[in-house]
């Protein structure tokens, strides 16, 4: 899924991790009484914060759906969170949002993403496995 950035002049789409990072950087800037500007992540002031938050965003997106994360951060208890690295604070907010009901279907669980790793799927059998 791609999202539209508020901080790029061109009509380019950004990834979910970049969207989450911009969202958190907006919150940090608001708390510190600063304004974000076009391509703020290139400035010396925001570069470290942006890089740190985008790595945390990618880790969160491996576990949870972006809709759940945004909904939790916009909720009343999530308004005080200013870092995506605060998993201890974010996870309890997301877990109640775990089930999303779709029409004509049973409740669908979005937590966690369980994908088989390639190493487990194509594990080489040992000689002992062949004897059994």
Task: Throw out a few tags for this protein.
132 residues; elongated; 6 helices; mainly alpha
How would you describe this protein?
This protein has one domain. Helix content is 48%, strand content 6%. A two-stranded antiparallel sheet has the order 1-2. It is elongated, with a radius of gyration of 19 Å. The N and C termini lie far apart (46 Å). About 6% of the residues have low confidence.
Record the SSE blueprint:
Elements: E1 3-4, E2 13-14, H1 16-32, H2 44-63, H3 66-74, H4 87-94, E3 99-100, E4 108-109, H5 118-121, H6 127-131
Average pLDDT figure:
77
Give the overall form: elongated
**Residues in β-strands, percent:** 5-15%
Number of domains: 1
Helix vs. strand class: mainly alpha
Distance between the termini: 46 Å
Q: How helical, in percent, are the residues?
A: 40-55%
The largest pleated sheet is described as: 2 strands, antiparallel
Number of strands: 4
Order of strands, main sheet, comes to 1-2
Helical region count?
6
What's this, in brief?
With 132 residues, the protein is mainly alpha-helical.
């Amino acid at each position: 899924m791609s999202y539209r950035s508020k901080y790029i002049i061109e009509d380019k789409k950004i990834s979910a991790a970049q969207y989450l990072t911009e969202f958190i950087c907006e919150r940090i800037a608001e708390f510190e009484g600063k304004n974000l500007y076009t391509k703020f992540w290139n400035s010396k002031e925001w570069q470290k914060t942006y890089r740190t938050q985008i790595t945390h965003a990618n880790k969160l997106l491996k576990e949870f759906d972006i809709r759940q994360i945004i909904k939790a951060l916009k909720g009343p208890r999530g308004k005080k969170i200013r870092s995506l690295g605060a998993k201890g604070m974010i996870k309890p907010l997301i877990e109640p949002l775990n089930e999303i009901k779709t029409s004509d279907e049973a409740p669908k669980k979005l937590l966690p993403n369980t994908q088989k790793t390639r190493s487990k799927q194509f594990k080489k059998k040992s000689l002992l496995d062949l004897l059994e």
